[in-house]
Amino acid sequence: MKKWIPTTMAVVLLAGVMAACSNSKSAEQPTSSAAASTKPAEKTKFSISLRTLAFGHVEKSPDINQDKWVKKLEELTNSDMNIVLVPHKEYEQKMIQMFATNDIPDVVQANGGVNGKELAGSVKAGVFMPLDDLLKKYGQNLLKKVPKEAWDKVTYQGKIFAIPEYLSNPSRRAIFVRKDLLDKTGLGVPKTVDEYMNVLRKFKEMGVENPYMGRENFKYADSFFGAYDVFPYLSMFEKQGDQVLPKFYDTENMMKALQTYKTMFDEGLINKEFATINATVFKNTILAGKAGMWSMNANEMLQWETQLKTTVPTGDIEIIPAPTGPDGKGGHYLYGAAPRAYFINKNVKNAAQIVQFFDWMMSPEAEKFFTFGIAGDTYTETNGKIDYKAPTDTAGVDEERYRQSFLWLVQDTTYNKGTLGLTEEGKKLMNIFDTTLKNEGRDGIEFEPRLDSLAKNPDISPISDQAPPVLLSHMVKMVYGKEPISDWPKVLEEWKSKGGNDVIKEANDKFNSKDSGTTVIMPRK
Amino acid sequence: MNQRAQVSKGKAMLRTFWKYKALYLISLPGIIYFIVFKYVPLLGSVIAFQDYNIFDGFTGSKWVGFDNFTRMFAHYDFLNILKNTVLIGVYDLLLGFPAPIILALLLNELRLVVYKRVLQTVVYMPHFLSWVIVSGIAIGILSPSTGAVNHFITWLGFEPIYFLGEESWIRSVLITSGIWRDSGYGTIIYLAALAGINPDLYEASEVDGANRWRQTISITLPSLLPTIMILFLLHIGKFLDFGFERVFVFLNPLNKENGEILDTYIYSQGLLAQQFSYTTAIGLFKAVVGVIFIVTGNLLSKKTTGESLY
């Protein structure tokens, strides 16, 4: 009697499944064909993958390709971009998936030169095209403006494989202090580690909850390792005698640095629970006015200050020189010379146009567009004088930051001169970059690509700003007083036995032989 | 068997097939789903025996036999990680598995329906929080300076404990947070089974003078046993599969020694360091152990209680 019911149900189910499968495709097609039909031939059409970098405006955008600024950029450059966003958090995994499934866009944005993990060895595998000839013909501006260190980062076996964004001042992290609190101590701006400790003790006396703001894994809480020049990071090899060794081999200074943190821990100058303080708690604690001093990226200063003032109206944040160690120097680790780089797929037909597109990024027109936006919309111009009102609401700030930093694919990312130059605080910040920060920072010998022995064994391998897990456990335990600091030589033995011996052997071989497959990058400071 | 019988048997099969064609049609998407998403990817496990390179693929990568497995067993930390995995698995089995049963039995004893419903909803809730949030809450309430737990401990006159900074506490934290998050949700199946018990049995036992405790021991538990047995078998199949996320969010350099398990090790080595072949080998090892457990468990259970998965 009711036999038709299951049959119809089955048909409906199947149809539903099929519709669901085909839907996604049919939704994409009309947009791309419509875009193509308006102005075919001349437009530079390409797809490009971009990491979202946790930018609010990007991650909240329903479709970045329909974004006003992308549209305008396409109009200015006569191009038709198809941006494929790669989520910030799962960046490496998603990129590897992309290579594994061979679903590679025309232009791939990568993070750290040709050997970044996210590239999964694709440059070596010949996925991208060498750009030397194209750059000579179509990328003159790029060749002129981008510094050599940045080109070095994207050179593999003597050939340039990508167009790098660059950082003319790689010293980006800085010590921030609550100036209002520092003034109250009456101690003046501290310089050496001892002076710093005195300020921190005074902060403690004054009731500041976190005189120095700690964070798990010493991330953004590593200023004192910098003072003693013992960063246990990837770019931190150095010559000790006739051997190339990681900086943490400097037992004497490493133990002094650890002792500094232990003293801070024992006296309550750093949060007793810093081993479990994550990025969010870190930021919230500072913005709630509960920290006296901390380390962070200098370019975020104005934003944080605005936010701090909402809770602590008298709060005044300032950047001061980082603590100096026995050699009179200090600072944080230096960033790579090329924060982002763009690789062109070897199957792309219009590579020349794409290079021109990137070359345009260096033009005065581009600078004006990315800095101030669209005339008549975000700024007005009378007699060559630009009247630009920086946004104040969160969404507006997000959008500005997105335009100036995210969408301006190739630029000097140290800071945005155009907008910072408009305000007093901005000028001050630029000045800090050009004076304080320029003079500090620690660097070491780095190998490109990463040493095989490190790549194979993550336990003993540091990352750009974090110690290898094997060392980190001991470092944290020593600060917490669970292991004696004098055991550091034993930790080194452990590191060696777990694969470190191979690392040292490989580092010295590569340093001395100078084979073409490896670039040895010497310290910049 | 003669040919004719075979033919007619085949025919009969076709006829049944035709008769229930709608049912077979409905099952088709499910079957296709399992083949495409569950069985085809299984073939990917071959990379455990290769030196896999994503640009060469399965076909182009070099075969290395059992090298990756040898490397795994030879790793200086392997025994420790395996020990952690097994220990956490055992604790979870001993403490985490019975928790929903006990909770369901307790809920079942509540006579006021409204109260029971409210309580049920409350205990389900944590299941819908992600591990990241659970860890955030745990870190908050366990904090030695601001956490409620330590306030209580100091109020009792003891020293505060840095639960997440002590190797000795990490396993307890992992198991307890798991129980807190999931035991309420786990009661669903048991409550359903409890609802299916014939009320006559209770009435009869009451006539015989059995009190609540006696009833629970002699009626409720035996009636629940088949459900418990099936869920137990499913649980031991996932014995080494404690779950990556719930451990990862609690780990830090201070407690890693006792907290690192195979899953978190696979994450750091495989996804972060791109050792695909190596970690596939570890994953395969885990899966094989799981299969062995489930098969033996099933066999034992069939022999002893008559309950089995298949």
Spell out the blueprint of helices and strands.
The complex is a heterodimer of chains A (525) and B (310).
Chain A: H1 4-38, E1 44-51, H2 56-60, H3 68-77, E2 79-86, H4 91-100, E3 107-110, H5 132-138, H6 140-145, H7 148-153, E4 155-156, E5 159-160, E6 162-164, E7 173-178, H8 179-185, H9 193-205, E8 210-212, H10 223-227, E9 237-240, E10 243-246, H11 251-266, H12 279-287, E11 291-297, H13 301-311, E12 317-320, E13 341-344, H14 351-360, H15 364-372, E14 379-382, E15 385-388, H16 394-406, H17 417-420, H18 424-434, E16 446-448, H19 452-456, H20 469-479, H21 488-513, E17 519-521
Parallel strand pairs in A: 1-2, 1-3, 8-11
Antiparallel strand pairs in A: 3-13, 4-5, 6-13, 7-11, 7-12, 9-10, 14-15, 16-17
Helix pairs in contact in A: 5-14
Chain B: H1 3-19, H2 21-39, E1 50-51, H3 57-60, E2 62-63, H4 67-74, H5 78-96, H6 98-109, H7 113-124, H8 131-142, H9 148-155, H10 167-195, H11 199-207, H12 212-237, H13 244-248, H14 256-259, H15 262-272, H16 276-304
Antiparallel strand pairs in B: 1-2
Helix pairs in contact in B: 4-16, 5-10, 6-10, 7-10, 10-12, 12-16, 15-16
Assembly state: heterodimer
Number of helices of chain B: 16
Q: Supply the helix-strand structural class of chain A.
A: alpha+beta
Strand content of chain A: 5-15%
Percent helix among the residues of chain B? Answer: over 70%
In sequence order, what are the helices and strands of chain B, one letter per element?
HHEHEHHHHHHHHHHHHH
| Helix residue percentage of chain A | 40-55%
Number of DSSP helical runs of chain A: 21
Tell me the total number of β-strands of chain B.
2
Shape of chain A: globular
Largest interface: A-B, 42 and 31 residues
Q: How would you classify the helix and strand content of chain B by structural class?
A: mainly alpha
Strand order across the biggest sheet of chain B?
1-2
